Amino acid sequence: MGLKVKECINYIETLINVFTIENGKVKVLLFRKKTDPYKGYWLLPGEMVKSGDALENTISDVVYDKIGLTSLYIEQSHIFSKCVRDNDELVISVSYIGLIDSKSAEIKREDRIDYESKWFPIDSLPKLAFNHENIIDKAVEQLQNKIINTNFIKKLFPGDFTLPEIQSVYEQLLGKKMDRRNFRKKFINLGIVKPTGNKSEGGLGRPATLYIFRDEFKERNLF
Amino acid sequence: MGLKVKECINYIETLINVFTIENGKVKVLLFRKKTDPYKGYWLLPGEMVKSGDALENTISDVVYDKIGLTSLYIEQSHIFSKCVRDNDELVISVSYIGLIDSKSAEIKREDRIDYESKWFPIDSLPKLAFNHENIIDKAVEQLQNKIINTNFIKKLFPGDFTLPEIQSVYEQLLGKKMDRRNFRKKFINLGIVKPTGNKSEGGLGRPATLYIFRDEFKERNLF
DNA sequence: GCAAAAGTGTTTTCAATACACCCATGG
DNA sequence: CCATGGGTGTATTGAAAACACTTTTGC
């Protein structure tokens, strides 16, 4: 306890777990690593913290420079410090959670072909570099706790959506099936959504009613 | 966005919010600062991270060297990085939450008279150095979310306790009064506590029944 | 007309709430 | 005997859960 080896520089990096909903699946954005170690493995977008930059600035850089987004919802997730490198250096990883709706995410994806990046469903992740699998696990765990808040959902569905879509996101994140009738009853009774008058198109089966969040909706917890 | 000034060292410190229940009040442990800046103000115990030490080691040092505890429950709270110093240096503060029962806390307090330290009720904090007031606020906010978990409560009450004691902690942390009958009903119906057969002593009024957590109790959320 | 997914109502069960009086102790 | 705080029971309300059939669309 308290055995000091020698003074050395600690590196701090910020990483971000950007989540979106694509084709009804909850997905996270990953980049493929081009160099050893872990060449060919996937990792979370991130950047070393430099020169008196506050963490918030660094994460903004990551989001803008690497992902190509100018704004998305961000909050802190967790700090990891076990990932020690060869030479007495300690890398501290500050992990963030970002949420983006599928439409914005899709547009930006076209712009960025210089990196190999991909959205992976959280239940089928590829080989991940370093401890990034742990980092994603922790972010997903926190997402589970956040998703019961209606304000949080709105960030994933800023446009219109169907109730079956939203229900499916809950089922994926909470890891359990829910009764369709009870789910709608609850969601609609909250009074935070209203039908747009339109119907979903193109899918199999009966088209679903499209809803949007009311402008004046009050943040609440479900479940 | 991304304007780099120059390379410089970022300092990382760990801080801990140690909470206990003393005389029925939720309190946090603070030390008085001996030197300028903020001489005479109070602050959270903490330490700079050195030499490839993982954060967990650093916080262990703090707990052992400065507080005199060999073990207490610890979890991460939040990272603060706005506290920039004069010379382009950035201090990143990694904040932890620690919980200790009053009995262990009391014993250790005797041992440590070389520092001026004191337990302050969270609703009447003294003048705090740096941004430590924000840091405590954040920790208390997280405590509010954690306290609904029975496992968390047990860490504050590992020995025996009365139901009015526990109820009071809930009321302090959640910031609302609760009905005594409904509170007991809920708590006892959980089946996680059992009466010891003894009664509290020394207080005014009728002595209260003492309870302990059952050995095999299942972690659950209340409220 | 068939497959696929959306939409709808009722009953039961259980937890949350509201509420007022009696009990044990110390002084 | 009085002040102080602890302990108890019941009725009401509302949300959660369980459950099966009908509707709309594409092919």
Features:
homodimer; 223 residues; alpha+beta; 7-stranded mixed β-sheet; 3-stranded antiparallel β-sheet; 6 helices; 10 strands; elongated; disordered N terminus; DNA-binding
What does this structure look like?
2 copies of one chain form a homodimer. With 223 residues, chain A is an alpha+beta fold. In chain A, 30% of the residues lie in helices and 28% in strands. Chain A is built from 6 helices and 10 strands, in the order E-E-E-E-H-E-E-H-E-H-H-E-H-H-E-E. In chain A, the strands form 2 sheets. In chain A, strands 1, 2, 3, 4, 5, 6 and 7 form a 7-stranded mixed β-sheet that branches. A 3-stranded antiparallel β-sheet of chain A has the order 8-10-9. Chain A is elongated, with a radius of gyration of 20 Å. The termini of chain A are far apart. At the A-B interface, helix 1, strand 5 and strand 6 of A face helix 1, strand 5 and strand 6 of B. Chain A binds a DNA duplex (27 and 27 nucleotides) through helix 6.
State the helicity of chain A in percent bands: 25-40%
Anisotropy-based shape of chain A: elongated
Oligomer: homodimer
Radius of gyration from the alpha-carbon trace of chain A, in angstroms: 20 Å
Distance between the termini of chain A: 43 Å
Low-confidence stretches of chain A: 1-8
What is the mean pLDDT of chain A?
86
Main interface by residue count: A-B, 34 and 34 residues
User: What fraction strand of chain A?
Assistant: 25-35%
Q: What is the structural class of chain A?
A: alpha+beta
Order of SSEs of chain A: EEEEHEEHEHHEHHEE
Strands of chain A, count: 10
What characterizes the major β-sheet of chain A?
A: 7 strands, mixed
Number of helices of chain A: 6
